[in-house]
Amino acid sequence: MEFLNQILSDFSSLAWGLPLLVLLIGGGLYLLIRSHFLPFRYLGHAINVLRGKYDDPNDPGQISHFQALTTALSATVGMGNIAGVAVAISIGGPGAVFWMWISAVVGMSTKFFTSTLAIMYRGQDSAGEVQGGPMYFIMEGLGKSWKPLAVFFSLCGLIGALPVFNVNQLTQALNDILLIPNGVEVSLKTNLIIGVVLIGITALVILGGIKRIGSVASRLVPSMVALYFVLIIIILVAHSDVLVYYLQLIFTDAFAANYYPKDDTFLGGVLGALMLHGIKRGAFSNEAGIGTAPMAHGAAKTDEPIREGLVAMLGPAIDTLIVCTLTALAILVTGVWETTSNNGVSLTASAFADVMPNYGKYLLLICIAVFSMSSLFSYSYYGTKCMSFLFGDDKKHYYNYFYILSILIGATTSLSMMINLIDGVFALMAIPTMLATIILAPKVINELKGYTKRLKENNQDANKPS
Length: 466
Description:
two-stranded antiparallel ribbon
């Protein structure tokens, strides 16, 4: 097991090297500058689109703009926000949060481009159903000769969509918050029981396809984000005396790269390693440039690609700039990142227990459970899309059986193995997604210019930018 863990660790480190950092952040900055920051000037319009102002039930697609965003968010607003942020801080200190922010701002631009392309170049699966996602915009936008790149993305997606990290951290949360404090001995048997229960709940939803997933996600995600927000605010108010100090520390430590209370030598005090770690956790959280979200946004009912791109752009803002920042501040102001040896979700639970000792960790467990379960639903859809592209629509249901089996693996293996596996595969998925997006960026710019021109001519939006 140690040998396998080392292989996965080496694989993750190799995949997340400098070339990928340049591709994700450099590519994202290129897209941001190439569009003259135009998407950011249409945030008000994006919110109107999200509210359903422009919805047309006759448009091609399967789910609404709101359901597409909540489906994508149900995959990203999950353990990456609660456990991933804790991992980032425990390894890289407060400065890692700053680089997560940078990843999110750049990621907003990347998500705009990738999700616009998912609508512009929708293809059809073997059953004739309209589909969107990197594999389809690679084929439809770049041509059949680029099919190997689309196949590579889909093969990586089969593994990247597995729920092993979310299940692993949900199991850890149930063990640390519910079972152990109540005298239950945690063992392989208890972990397997948790896995079987998760399988039952997941199967009920995912076997209903994207429409059921979108319907469930649109109900679960907003309420859980609201509850999580309220709980974090309670923690921040209780420690308001040190809030400003830690906000400043996030900025100063981002460039100092020498403040690691747990282990001075872990990253060797190298600024580049800290940047890479923060950006990696940011990408894991909001998935901008990875290519998963465009598969959800590609199913939206719309004939205006730019609208879906603008809606998708809100994802990293909600996911990383809001939810991840709240988690980070809760961990920092309570001081648990310095006083406990906990990692992942257990570190976040410690922060909640610090301010709300009797009930805080149980409320967090509710949020964790819902975030994790909603992620399980969305990722299964991503995996079946990749399966359908590779082997045909009539074979995609086989992926769900493989997916369900992987829940047991996630429930019974270590955090480091799971995080290295998914990190490494996510990195590989980003390569075809970002390459195709950068090549097709001029097409998106032309579409954006045409859309803004039509908006002004029709005077459709009272919130037009100045």
